[in-house]
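QA checklist item 7 of 12: single-chain prediction sanity check.
[x] sequence parsed
[x] length recorded as 198
[x] structure emitted
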Amino acid sequence: MADSPDALPADPREAADEIELARRARDGDAAAFGQLVARLMKPAFVVAYRLLGNREDAQDLVQEAFGRAYRKLGSFEPGREFRPWFFRILVRSGLNARESAQLRRTDELPEDARSPGEGPELAAERAELRARIRSALAALPPRQRLLVELVDLEGFAPADVAEMLEIAGATARWHLHMARGALRTILAAYEPGREGEP
């Protein structure tokens, strides 16, 4: 997605500014930490939502990760970039929450919820496509699914996601390649124009 937030700032001045904010936050400047939170809130929520698939759980995870980061500021190395350090905390916490299966269960928005701007046929086609894509993603191993969601759907760079997951860049690229190949195979059966398909 073109407007998706990047895990790492593209502008070197912004990265340097965040390093300075992190240093000040580590030295006890709460306002500096607040600025870091404001900058990272949106990309943190995107990652949390992709990890947990539920808006409320994602919001809780983001709050928990910022709290954990604040408590661990004493172990943060001055001069390092804050974003990768914070995203490792967020991803680790999210993976732990997902594995422990202590997530709240809420009703999903129904697939047939009517959008005011589209007709029923288009809504049905889109709902069917979303269901097929969701089903194809669910068939992937968790790490591959997360990579596809963050890289292909949210626009994060593979290297940034590799750092979040604490795996080598080559490993992330391999998992992404395997996931994309599996998705092509799974979704090929739904290609328009094939016999028996619309």
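[x] summary fact logged: The chain is about 65% helix and 0% strand.
[ ] second reviewer sign-off
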